[in-house]
Every structure is written in structure tokens, then in C-alpha cells.
Amino acid sequence: VFEVxxxxxxxxxxxxxxxxxxxxxxAKPRLSNAGLTERFDLFIxxxxxxxxxxxxxxxxxxxxxxxxxxxxxxxxxxxxxSEPNATKDDDDDSYEVxxxxxxxxxxxxxxxxxxxxxxxTVDQL
Length: 125
Hints:
The protein contains 3 helices and 6 strands, in the order αβββββααβ. By secondary structure, it is an alpha+beta fold. β2 and β3 form a beta hairpin. One of its GO terms (molecular function) is ATP binding.
């Protein structure tokens, strides 16, 4: 909710940097601050126009990040289902955090430094 409120107020073109590691499990941790990642988003008129990050290529760190996120998601789902008046949040189920064992095995063999960038296509503007 806090993230959505901030996004709506970003009218001028702005880069948002250094996302928390908890919400960016595929991004490489920032060397100067282990709690943040090497990630940025570009916002214009309150809309995300680009998302980019340095990919985490350390297999041990990647496995730890994915396991922590997977376990947190499962714990939240268990807590929600045990509450008698809980309402289901559709946005929370928009993705499933899985442990991609093939991907983790490939990382163990070695992966060069990489980055990823996703953007909005012209027809979405």
C-alpha cells in the first residue's frame, strides 16, 4: 500500500533506487548496504515505465532469497486461512514464489554477471 501511494505522487520523471532485498529476490545486494539491492524503476506521471536490476548470480544467496520469500508467502497464507474473518487479497496471489531447482543448479555451474530490464511498450502508453 505504501508503494502504491508513493508511485501515484511521482509526476515528474524519476528513478526510484535501492529497493529492499525482501521484495527483490532476483536482484544483487548493494555492496554498500546489504539490506538494499542494485535495482531501479523509472516512473513518469505516476506510471512505472521501466524496471531494471543487476541479477543475483551467487547460487547460495539466490537459494536463500528464494527460500525466505517462499517460506514467508506460505506462512502468510497459513495465517490468513486460520483467521475467521479473513478476506482474500487477489493481488497477493498474483504470483507464486517457487524454488526453480533447475535455475539454481545452473547458477551453481556458473553464470556471468547479468542484468535485466523490462519496460512498457509503446501500445501501453
